[in-house]
Amino acid sequence: MVHLDQVLSRLFYKFRLPVALLCLVGAGFIASSFYQKSIPSPKKPESMAVDNVLQWKVVADNLYYVKERKELYLYVDLKASKAQKKSDRTPLNLSLVLDRSGSMNGDKIKYAREACKFVVDNLEPSDNLSIVVYDDQVDVLTASAPVKDKATLKKLIDNVHDRGSTNLSGGMLEGYAQVHKTQQRNYVNRVLLLSDGLANQGITDEKVLQQLARQKNNEDNMTLSAFGVGADFNELLMTNLAEYGSGNYYFIDSPDKIPSIFAKELHGLLSVVAQNTLLRIKFPSQNLSVNKMFGYQGQVKGDELVFDLKDVFSEEQKAILIKFTVTEPLTEDAIFTSTLTYDDAVTFQRVNASENTRLKVTTDKALFDRSFDKDVLQNIVLFETNERLENAMLEVDHGNFEGAKKMIITLKSEMEVQMKNLPENADLSRQYNTVMEYEKQVENAKTMSSEELKYNQKASRSSNYQIRKKK
Question: In terms of Cα–Cα distance, which of 138, 109, 108, 132 is closest to 201?
């Protein structure tokens, strides 16, 4: 029987232990290392239907711990119910921040105007909206206010024309300022940032821009979704702005897709089921340290991990994988206490639930070896593969096509072994197809034009982002 640290280090980091994985699968996975808790909405009048708002589970990769363990995983899966039909939805407090730089000429600015007007048409007087446009200068077309005179708003949008360079930071900060003016707790407070270029005016340092998005999110409770258009924007920056801003990232490869992508974002915003969602996981910090987080980034505060998940939308799924390093061997059972709190978007009442997950110390290695949870193993493979594919994309960015090709070939062959020995899984299949598609792109990278290569990089990163976000 193969020992655990061989399994984890070689299976999940180098993916080179098919025999061990086959042993694990053959022995059967014990899925008793998790709890699943459905949190009911607070009691409502009998005339109202009672439904579960959020379903969640916290899953250890193994129910047991043996002293040879050097690392372990915890997997969190949160799923929202379908939004109930109701006369009053959660109101929105939005700022549309639109790039009007010279590169937005032609179809880009045309379809961006169309998308903005679509947003206006779908808002109500209870919603607040501001519209900010930017090139090297930043202008507020309309300050944040209730949406009442839609015709006037759409006329203002029709008068937006391309010009100048790209002061992305100025537009973003003004968008936040407008949202802040009319910010309320039970509203969805979000900036929608659209750009087709690189930040070349105002604040251009990526780390500073990302920190601004994080600060506005964590301290001021304002979120941001980023829309990148065409081949010339910085997709790493736009993705990170959305990540740090607790919003969504979209790659728009063709201008005519701008309205439909905005419609997708707006559909989510109009179907909020939970707000101010906070997940806390208390772990034995005297024995474990947080090595890495996948899916969503949390903050480590002493012996607690805090994930500020903000708004959760109808039927949305959020997945988090936490990798711990064992700093001091466990001598007694370990307890992970998880607490989930949120505001029910229907009743506006605060909901709170918590559970304990126990990791049992054992000397029975045979018991340990047959007690892995298959769902967690699948997600470890998924998130580790996703990250390794991102690393290969960085090599292509740097012009190291041969290095990227070797990484992809190795990744693909190792993933094929894992998929043969793991139960069929739609997410893993989707990730594998993304790896396969990217392998073809890398093979042809040398013969691509600069424009084509940039488009392909953005499309591949967008696909990889969608997978790790379970979208």
Answer: 138
Residues near 88 by beta carbon (within 8 Å), at least 6 away in sequence: 126
Q: Where are the beta strands (DSSP E) in 295-411?
A: 299-301, 304-313, 317-326, 334-344, 350-361
> What is the CB neighbour count within 10 angstroms for residue 232?
16
Task: Give the contacts of 102 (CB within 8 A, at least 6 positions apart).
Answer: 135, 162, 163, 164, 165
Computed from CA positions of residues 460, 462, 468, 471, in that sequence, does the dihedral angle turn out positive or negative?
negative
3-state DSSP helix/strand/coil percent for the chain, to nearest 5?
40, 30, 30
Q: Letter for the amino acid at 96?
A: L
Q: What is the pTM of this model?
A: 0.87
User: Positive or negative, the Cα torsion across 86, 87, 93, 96?
Assistant: positive
Give the C-alpha separation, 130 to 117, whole Å. Answer: 12
Q: Which are the contacts of 111, defined by CB distance < 8 A and separation ≥ 6?
A: 255, 256, 257, 258, 259
Own/partner pairs for 158-163, CB < 8 Å, 24+ apart? Answer: 158/113, 158/117, 160/98, 160/100, 160/109, 160/112, 160/113, 160/133, 161/100, 161/109, 162/100, 162/101, 162/102, 162/103, 162/104, 162/105, 162/108, 162/109, 162/135, 163/100, 163/101, 163/102, 163/135
Please identify every stretch of the chain with a pLDDT value under 50, giving residue numbers as ranges: 1-51
The DSSP secondary structure of 408-466, one letter per residue, reads HHHHHHHHHHHHHHS---HHHHHHHHHHHHHHHHHHTGGGS-HHHHHHHHHHHHHHHHH
Angle at 67 between CA 63 and CA 70, to 5 degrees: 85
- Beta carbons of 412 and 406 less than 8 angstroms apart: no
Query: Across the strands, what pairs with 313?
Result: 272
Alpha helices in 85-231, H assignment, sequence order = 107-121, 150-158, 168-181, 206-218
What digits encode the pLDDT tens for the residues 177-229? 999 999 998 899 999 999 987 888 889 899 999 999 999 999 999 999 999 99
